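Example record

The entry below shows one chain as it appears in the dataset: sequence first, then C-alpha cells.
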Amino acid sequence: MAEKKDYYDVLGIAKESNDADIKKAYRKLAKQYHPDANPNNPEAEEKFKEVGEAYSVLSDSEKRSNYDRFGHSAFGAGSSGGGGYGFSGFDAYDIFGDIFGNSDIFGGFGGGHSRGPQRGSNVHVDIDIDFKDAFFGVTKDITVPIKDTCDTCKGNGAKPGTYPESCKQCNGTGMERTAKQTILGVMQTSRPCRACGGKGKIIRDKCTTCRGVGKISKKKTFSVNIPKGIDTGQSIRLQGKGEAGEKSAPAGDVLITVNVKPHEVFKREGNDLYAEIPISFTAAALGGDISIPTMEKPETQQIKAGTQTGTVIRLSQKGMPSVRNSRVCGDIYAVLTVVVPTKLTDKQKSLLKDFAEESGNVTNLGDGSKSFWDKLKKPFK
C-alpha cells in the first residue's frame, strides 16, 4: 500500500496555518478536483478524496492535535485516516455545507441540500441623456421588459384550483443522493432531482397563462430620478423592481446604466469642464471684455492686451456638480484661441500693412534680407 501523504502537504499549507487558512486551501482544491468538474477522471476523484480526508482531520482541533503528535498512526492501522474518529459513512458534501453555507458551487452539481427559493434576477437597462440633464439632474420615465409574477396562478405555476405536488422521487428536497463505496467508506453525492428539475415540486395541471413557469413577461414603467453630476457608465439601482423571485423570495433590482451625450462646447474630465473659446485677433491685441459660456449663463471676463492663443481662464465652481454632493462642483477651464481672419478687404489689408511697418515687423519672409531661421527666431527674442 502506498505511503500516505502528509495532510499539510496535501492541502499545500504550513503547519502553523490557522483554521481560516485550512478552510481556504480546502475550498480551492475541492473545487479544482470535484468529480462533477472532472467527469470520468479517476485521478481527480482520488485527489478529491485525499483533500477531503486531510481537511476532515486538520479542521478538527482534537484530530489535528493528535495528528501533529503521532502522524497517521494516531488513527490506527488501515483506517484510511479515520480510525476511532468515524470516517465510515463520510459525506464530503457535509463538509461543503459547513464551508459554503449549502451553496451551489459547481454550477448545479454537488451540494447535499435542496436550494431555497431563489431571489429574482436583476434587469439591466441602458439610457441616453443630454449633457444638460447630467448637469441639472432630471426625472425620466423608462419602460422595462420584466418577468413578473403570473397574475393567474400567483406564481405557483399551477392551474387555478390545483396546486403543485411534492416530488416523490426526492421527497420534495429537489436533490437526489447516491452512495458509493470508497476507500474512505461510503461517500454520498447529490445532484438536482431529474424528476422535478431540482424544484422539489411537480405541476400536474399547468397554468395556461404562464405554462407552469409562474412568471410572465410584462412591460413596466418607472419614474427615475437622475442625480446632478452623473457621468457615463454610472448606474442607478431601483431596488426590488426587477424580476420576481421564487415563492416568497425577494424580487431582483433594475440597474440603469447612463450614457451622457457629448456637449457641443464642453468636454468633461471628472467634474471639470473644458472649452475652447475663440477670440478675435483685435480683442487679443487690445484686450477688453469677452464672454465665456457656462452651463447656466455666460460670464464676462476681462483679458489683457496682447493675450495669446492657449491662455487659460478658470471659472471656479462652475463645472459639473459632484454626484455625491451637488453643492460641490468642478471648475470651467476656458482655453482661448486667437482667430486670424481669412478674408480681408483692401482697406483692412492696407491698415495691417501700415501696422506692420509702424511696428517694424517684416511681412515677407522670402525677401532675402535675412535667413529664414533668423526671421523665425526674431519674435522669441
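Notes for this example: Residues 77-94, 96-114, 365-370 have pLDDT under 50 and may be disordered. The chain has nine helices and 15 strands.
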